[in-house]
From TrEMBL:
Pfam families: ABC_tran
Domain ABC transporter: 7-216
Keywords, sorted A to Z: Amino-acid transport, ATP-binding, Nucleotide-binding, Transport
Annotated transmembrane regions: none
PROSITE patterns on file: ABC_TRANSPORTER_2
A molecular function (GO) term: ATP binding
Family of this protein: Belongs to the ABC transporter superfamily.
Keyword Nucleotide-binding listed: yes
Name of the featured protein: ATP-binding cassette domain-containing protein
Species: Runella salmonicolor
Source lineage: Bacteria, Pseudomonadati, Bacteroidota, Cytophagia, Cytophagales
Length: 219
């Protein structure tokens, strides 16, 4: 039997003051697969990604890489990078410089769009264009895992399609954790999907049916 390496998030407890946000979490993110988290606004998805990345300190957590407990995953050499919901890069930086800075590789074969955009400053791009290139900055990083928090937000449908294709093209080399409210697009590329509700993760076995039953999408 073959065992695949994986990143695991287990027994996470998070509270903001008296308010419990996360309390019974288990996520298994195999290398070479896309793992998705869906859930209503405010259920704790972004907080969970930050805990897995290591920048948000919860009451308790066990984040393990290949079975080994990792306190600060973002400090581990080439382990993980995180795309937050907010802009990531200084607006004065040129796109090409940002890619160099992150050691992310988009070569000239990526096409005419790279030629057009590479010398522009990130602050000169539209909201959707900036989101697209910042997502690629993380996606093409030389790391084992990328955590993508709402990468489809602000993107027009053609960009969403391209991004889905690019995420799948990176799967051979990486583990990818994604959360986004464009659930149909997420389900299309996910190998497994968890639903986050009342602080607990549920692995979905029949995603569309389960999402209706849990009140995330209408009947
Ligand atoms: N620094 C903070 N202090 C207090 N409460 C917070 C803080 N950050 C987040 N929260 C609360 O914790 C809950 C979870 O927030 P989080 O951003 O993780 O949700 P989310 O599932 O990512 O939401 P969305 O889908 O809207 O992006 C929310 O109710 C939010 O108001």
């Amino acid at each position: 039997m073959k065992f695949f390496k994986c990143l695991e998030a287990d027994s996470i407890e998070l509270a903001y003051g008296e308010r419990k946000i996360l309390q019974n979490i288990y996520l298994k993110m195999p290398l070479g697969e896309v793992t998705a988290i869906l859930g209503r606004n405010g259920c704790g998805k972004s907080s969970l990604l930050q805990i897995i990345f290591g920048t948000l300190k919860p009451v308790f957590k066990s984040v393990r890489w290949d079975g080994r407990f990792v306190e600060f995953p973002f400090r581990e050499h080439h382990l993980v990078r995180y795309l937050p919901q907010h802009p990531l890069t200084p607006p004065s930086l040129r796109v090409q410089e940002a890619f160099k800075w992150y050691d992310s590789v988009v070569d000239d074969s990526f096409g005419e769009r790279w030629q057009v955009v590479k010398n522009k400053r990130l602050g000169e791009l539209s909201g959707g264009e900036r989101r697209f290139w910042e997502t690629l900055l993380i996606l093409f990083s030389p790391v084992q895992y990328v955590l993508l928090d709402e990468p489809f937000s602000h993107l027009s449908p053609i960009y969403v399609e391209q991004l889905k294709w690019l995420i799948l093209s990176q799967k051979a080399q990486k583990g990818i954790l994604i959360t986004d409210h464009l659930y149909r697009d997420v389900l299309e590329i996910a190998d497994q999907t968890y639903f986050l509700q009342n602080g607990t993760t549920y692995l979905l076995t029949n995603p569309l049916r389960d999402l209706m039953d849990r009140g995330y999408i209408p009947e």
